[in-house]
UniProtKB/TrEMBL annotation:
It holds the Pfam family DUF2849. Residues 68-99 are annotated as: Disordered. This is Sulfite reductase. InterPro entries: DUF2849 (IPR021270). It comes from the Bacteria.
């Protein structure tokens, strides 16, 4: 029996910079998870993923990541996505310094 669809966001890495980015409802990419399009319908999520994957000149490795609704927009449900969102943990810099 297939698993029930859970809410998702589309994430990838920026082709040039390598930053983690999220696909928004207005077909742009954002470095803020809170701006990502929150997808609750499986068919719509698959169509949006196809749109995102066709932007090979901007992104690499687009995929659907589990998310939950939060006060300020989508939030990660898995530690991997939380780690990607906050950046490397080897020393305090970049995204970690900004938070």
């Amino acid at each position: 029996m297939p698993r029930a669809f859970t809410p998702k966001v589309i994430t990838a890495n920026a082709l040039i910079e390598g930053d983690v980015i999220y696909y928004t409802s207005d077909d742009t990419w954002s470095r803020q998870l809170s701006e990502a399009e929150f997808l609750t319908d499986e068919a719509h999520a698959q169509l949006r993923l196809l749109d995102a994957q066709q932007q090979a000149s901007e992104v690499v490795g687009a995929y659907l990541a589990d998310a939950k609704a939060g006060e300020n927009g989508p939030e990660p449900t898995h530690f991997r996505e939380e780690f990607r969102r906050t950046g490397p943990s080897n020393y305090f810099h970049g995204k970690q310094a900004e938070l």
